[in-house]
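Collaboration report, partner site 2.

Our partner group contributed sequences for two proteins of shared interest, and the home lab folded both. The records are reproduced in the order in which they were received, starting with the first partner submission.
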Amino acid sequence: MKKRVLWLTCSLLLAGLSVSPLQAETMLTPWGNLHGVRVGGEWVEFEAGLRIVQPDWSGYAAAVKYLQRPRYVRSASQRTVESRIAGVAFREVLTDTVPGQAVLTIEVEVVEKREMAGIFFCVDLPGRDFGDAKVQVMDSGSVSADGTTGADAHLTEGLPRAGQQVRIAGWNRTVDLRLERPVEVRLRRDQSNRATALNDPRLDQPFMAPPPGEPGGRQVYLKLLDGTPIRGDRASLSLAFEVTAVPDPEPVELTLDPSKPGRRFDGIGGNFRLQFPKTDPAVIGYCLDHLPVSWGRVELPWAPWHPDEDRDPLVVAGSGGLDRRVEEAMAMARTLTRRGMPVIVSVWSVPRWARAVNQPAGLRGTALNPAKSKRIVDSLVGALAFLKERYGVEAALFSFNEPETGVEVRQTPAEHVEFLWQMGQRLQERGLATRLLLGDTAHGTPAALQWITPGLDDPRLRGYLGAVAFHTWRGCTTADLELWRDAALRLGVPLLVTESGPDARLHEYPRVRLEPWFQLQEIDLYVRICAVAQPGALMPWQLTTDYSVLGGGGVYGEEGPLEPTQRFWNLKQLGLTPRPAFSLPLASNRREVTSAAFGDLAHGIYAIHLVNNGGPRRARLKGLPLALQELRVFVTDATRGMAEGGTLASQTGRVEFDLPAASYVTLLGRQP
């Protein structure tokens, strides 16, 4: 059957932009949504992307993080996303042309026939900036400053109108959309992708998600294909966005309270699971030599350590038969120990003999054989004893990696508790000081916290547990982080973030790690975790080639010498925090500024960390100790890496200074 084709072409123009990446940035996520535009430092927040709408408009499918397998390619001037949602394949290309301009082209093709109201490009407008926005549709011609010239009309919710231009005018934000030809435009008030992500336990909290109680937003739908497409139908849409923003002149007011120290913070750690033998040694060496790493986490390759149940792995290792992967992992642990850091040992791979006969249907991961629990515990404790005796490393903590989701060991809450109890007893019998992690879950959600609740309540585990641990791949709302903090307090042990990062699938589209918006998002997450959860350590995934904080050197095929990225400098700057230090309350009155503070009260050393997600603004900080008379300033952004920005003189416990746009600023001071 002959394919029906609809072609529309124009461009994406970003008004008011200059050459500096601090001022001009279009945020295209690797799953295919525009996530706003930074104009003159101000972030104009919206989410724009494809929606395949159900026939009765009761719902839609959209490009959502983690729910698809996109292909993302980044070059000097282009970003390309290819993916598929709800039987529709799409390709998006965002091309930077000259300063202040970029071109966005979207192509879709129906690959599976299904009933739908149509395929739309939707601009999802947050209520905070656009809740009372005027939305107008014009047939042709330009729009005047007051939005009243030409054949314009205010768009009414639910009533479609054909148009070639759309103006969305909020109180301090304006988005103009220009098309080469008229298309059907609808204004609706649906549940947004933003709300979906907040309510779906599989998904991460979006960057700068709206706080509870924020007014609901609206959505502008542009139709690409109608509701009767057949397989092979195609459409192409290119949009011209002209985005303007009024700078927010209000300063941020910050209040420190050194009189209420919280939990101890040992600084940044790192994961060192070896996966890339050609590039890992150089990357790891660079990170260890140039970052203040305080904790390390390595893998115990359990399957190659004990592949045959009937052969004692200690005998095999003693006779020179130690598997290369085990040898390299244990040598990595020794390297970290020699640098003075405690080491966590975690297990991913499972020997075949230890696997349950009947695996959980439809679930990821490998269940262990309960009939062989004693043999399993003996095997693992034997490996930890060998690590101590042969390599001089007594692991501080031990865990199965992400056991609630099965990466790769999968346990029920009851199985997790039973294993920890048996493992703790055996470690004690062998005279090992190694303690156990409760959790080490993939997610920082209430569901993951509920999974560890039986362990919180079981008195048999007291004395065997060394920390509560979680990873940041899901959740991490303020409410979630408070619950995890309280869980660790309840046991009287540290809370450890044993894997941190904003995107678990970064390895599938690693070039996005170089985008300024991603690098700012990551440090914003880390500072927020430090402020709310008060972890004992925060351990990025990883300080190896995988998810690397370095560029070049063959990392993901990147040419040139190894060099630090903005992510590297963010970590190094967070590492300026004195060790050990206590978390200190630091209040901020601006949503755009994320803040955390620490103090080594015994030595009078203080660190203030501020992530400014908005435009340039003034900051006023009060509550500093009167004896703290001077603060050094450090700045990391898209053009600077932990650059010193002079000193601030504190008068009566107050300082006032400038926060650059889209920046991470640290103040470091020591009492005389």
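Second partner submission, folded after the first:
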Amino acid sequence: MKRKVLKFTGLFITFIMVMWFAGCGNKPAETTDNQPQNTDNTEASTEAESAANPTETTEPAEPEHIETYALTQGYEGNLIYIIDSEGNKLKTIDREELAKKVPEDQKEQYCFCTDESYYRCTLVAEGDGFLFFRDTVPCDDSDKYQYSVFAVKEDDLKIYPIVKLPYEYYVMSTDYYEGAIYVDFSFGYDENGKYLGAGEKKFVYEEITDAFTEKDSEYNNVFESAQVMGVRLNGSSRVMNYSQDCFTRTMHECGYILGSSDNGYVMMDDRGAATPMVNFEDGYINMYSKGHMFFINSNYDTGVADAFIYDVDGKALNQISDDWSLIQSIGRNGNDYYYYTQDEESYGIKINHVFKYNAESGLTTALYEAKSIPGVSIQPGVEDFKLYGDKMYAICYNDGATKWMRIDSSNGVATYTDIDCPVSTVDIFNYGKISSTSIVDTCPNCGTPLVKIYAERFELDSKYSKNADKINETLKDVQDRELSYSTDGDDYYGSDCTEHQEHPTWYTITDDYTVSAVRIINDKYLAVDMGGCWFGGGAHGMPMRDQHLFDLENGEEKTLEDFYTMTNEDFKALVAYKTKEDFLKYENGESPYYAADADTVFNDAYEYAELDRGTVDFAEDGIYYYYPPYEMGPYAAGYIDIFITYEELLGRKDL
């Protein structure tokens, strides 16, 4: 704190004036009934002191620093909530409002909000009144893309460019730490596949220039040493640093940065020296601290996962959890490691068990467990889990909506606190209820599960239709068809049971069929949207999408052919034209389509479109004709939706 120093002259004058106001040094001033006596002469002495020292001002108190955090729903969240350390909501920022702030000539550089979440920029850090985003943007002089990091001031939503990396670089982490934004990146690989190393950029906001200025990273020598030795630092294919802390934070808190070489894991210290890890077999390290490392070993053959802690000082490996179908790390606070395991009440009904392991004491604490709810498609208890200090947050279902909740734990039971940060409404239960059924078909000889099917069914409340029973019976038939999976012709049923037992996951087909949305269209039609995923091995499953439309008056199921009065060729032409129109709205490099030109898109769409194909979702004011993954675009692009109004399709405003 600064100390005030008063000049002797000022003190002397002040003393004389105080004596004058007091009369004599030991005689109180005269008072009247209308003039209360100021026994301590505070006001007078203050005025006198101010008069004697006109340049002396009271030192303003420094504003209290409030630690803040950001909550948002991954790629899909429009709303960003700023909370304090107790979970109190301080501010709400809408991505759409951010997008409105971007000048037209900069839309490619700051893509805060798009209809396609696949291309949405990512919120990567928050601190000191700024939001920090990472995105990929077009290069200035080519059709290539490069990583970009920029900031938004929370109070006025002003955008601040920070850095655009060369297109060869890959961003590994973006972290706000000790008043600076750090961007860690890989230089990539050369044409011979040689790893080219990693680096770090540091940027600090300066009020004088109202801009972020680049500063030197204090660990450039470490990056250079790692490059010479061929050590791949955090973010390589072997090191899975969950927290995404920057190199500088990691070095400060741990005393080393974990990396990997062709000979195994190494720890790089602040001098650039590499120490190999011993007594540690191959695996993926998820989180680490100064003295410990947390990693999960999942056996693809058996479907069993184990969790381990590696003691850095003792060079010992300790197993802390075993024989779960899934173990996932979700956060770390000092030496406390948070993770969850998963099992099932029955196939499709998941139960997540959340634990905290303290690496110093070696104690595991069961925090809470959460079970999935049919019709609510979130990971129970851990959806978008955030750990800020020792406070836990996740998106949970509560009272007709998904929302951010603060989760407190006591004796293995969770208490969920609504912090007024909603994510989305779940209106399915406004119209009825959802039930679920699952089956598991096993090998008759060895008992290995070969087919697992989970199917949900919506049941309409009778207050919405006098034909609710008829509608519900049709939906029951739909569920039964999903559950009646035929194993005829499946080669693995006749395969060797030794293979079944050694590689059970190789021979298990899973098929999930869930209710994703329910709504009433034009006060006349009930639309039940279904989704799901089929998995039979490989890198990923295949998504499923379907809709059932019912006339509430008579309970009959309807299809597009019941409304469309023109020919199939007319329909194909309309869909192709609208698909081409959709293709043209994308900027260079953003298109989800395989085709590179509009004419090819038109021709491909014309070939695929059919009136009776069924890839149609009805909405309030039109239909969505959709293309499944791999049809018109890559798997990562997901479904490509083409909106066609009822005016264009039927010549009228509604269905």
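Feedback sent to the partner group on the second submission included the following. Residues 622 and 646 are 5 Å apart (CA to CA). Confidence is low (pLDDT under 50) at residues 1-52, 236-242.
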